[in-house]
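Input (structure):
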């Protein structure tokens, strides 16, 4: 079968006992970065040294059929560098091929940057949408955000430190400067930080420079909420920015 294994997003202590057991017994592992997987095995104290096969965005399409054929004969463990494979990481093409070929696919649940960021954001968690990474090019990014202006659900994005300030500025322009946002940085790591505020305030904060792995959680549009600065200003007092 094909085994999608979630790995820690920062703190190695978050690794499940089941993950360690599977890695101890694995004979073949398809890894997003084999060097990262080697460090993970050492960090978890796993003595087993399975055969590591590179599976990343640039070769997944070509290798999917070969790896699924292997999974039909023996268990194949799939790892991304952090979190669950297939979620903004390699693995989707492999799972789709396995499903088409009738090969069993299972998962070892575990840490998720999306769910962790949502949980600590202080924003509504009952309904949400994961939007992944915004486009790199400014025009494409603004177009993507414009299509989300009426989205009522909480939105979760991944973003790079280099583009964070620009993306927050574009969010302020698209959603209104007072739209509530939480920037979650280095989750589960030593320097974990959650910054809460309006889109405009956090854009100004990020302009000074930010480091680390980042999730951005954005409030959905509330019923009757205007995107104009005047209308958004009335709700500013309901949620004060803070750093956690």
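Output (sequence):
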């Amino acid at each position: 079968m094909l085994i999608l294994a979630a790995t820690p997003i920062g703190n190695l202590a978050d690794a499940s006992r089941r993950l360690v057991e599977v890695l101890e017994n694995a004979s073949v592992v398809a890894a997003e970065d084999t060097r990262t997987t080697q460090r993970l095995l050492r960090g978890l104290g796993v003595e087993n040294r399975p055969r590591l096969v590179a599976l990343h965005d640039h070769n997944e399409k070509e290798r999917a059929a070969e790896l699924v054929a292997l999974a039909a004969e023996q268990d194949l463990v799939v790892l991304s560098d952090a979190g669950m494979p297939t979620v903004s990481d390699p693995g989707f093409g492999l799972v789709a091929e396995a499903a088409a070929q009738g090969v069993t696919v299972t998962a070892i649940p575990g840490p998720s940057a999306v769910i962790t960021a949502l949980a600590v954001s202080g924003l509504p968690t009952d309904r949400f949408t994961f939007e992944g990474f915004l486009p790199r090019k400014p025009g494409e990014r603004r177009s993507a955000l414009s299509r989300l202006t009426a989205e009522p659900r909480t939105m979760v994005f991944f973003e790079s430190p280099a583009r964070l300030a620009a993306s927050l500025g574009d969010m302020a322009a698209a959603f209104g400067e007072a739209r509530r946002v939480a920037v979650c940085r280095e989750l589960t790591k030593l320097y974990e930080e959650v910054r809460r505020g309006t889109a405009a305030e956090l854009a100004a904060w990020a302009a000074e420079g930010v480091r680390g792995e980042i999730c951005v959680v954005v409030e959905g549009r509330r019923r009757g909420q205007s995107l104009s600065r005047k209308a958004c200003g009335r709700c500013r007092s309901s949620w004060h920015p803070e750093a956690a």
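Notes: The chain has two domains: 2-108, 113-243. Confidence is low (pLDDT under 50) at residues 228-244.
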